[in-house]
Amino acid sequence: MKKIQAPISVVTRDTNQIASKTDNIYESVHIIAQRANQIAQQLKEELHEKLRDFSMPHDNLEEVFENKEQIEISKYYERLPKPTAIAIEEFLQDKLMWRLREEEKKEHEEL
């Protein structure tokens, strides 16, 4: 997992600090949301890759097997900080790079 120390519980954030990175709170939130989606996708792929080792070759709805290792892996991922918390920390620590699309740049220049 990432080396970012993100809080597991809810933390009150200073919106001025978040907005100061882009001079626009909505743009900052959009950047954080995009990064959170990337992190969530990476975690999901990583989890599915690890759980693939435990998958049964045939699905039988009548039989349910408990696998302690599989349960531990799932619990580990449940205890990780949420993707949004990780993305916010990366954003505030200046560990994210972003750029505006060309169309958006032109609109901003015209204003």
TrEMBL record:
Protein name: DNA-directed RNA polymerase subunit omega
Coiled coil residues, start to end: none
Enzyme class per UniProt: transferase
Domain of life: Bacteria
Originating organism: Thermonema lapsum
Catalytic activity entry: RNA(n) + a ribonucleoside 5'-triphosphate = RNA(n+1) + diphosphate
GO biological process: DNA-templated transcription
Protein family membership: Belongs to the RNA polymerase subunit omega family.
UniProt keywords, alphabetically: DNA-directed RNA polymerase, Transcription
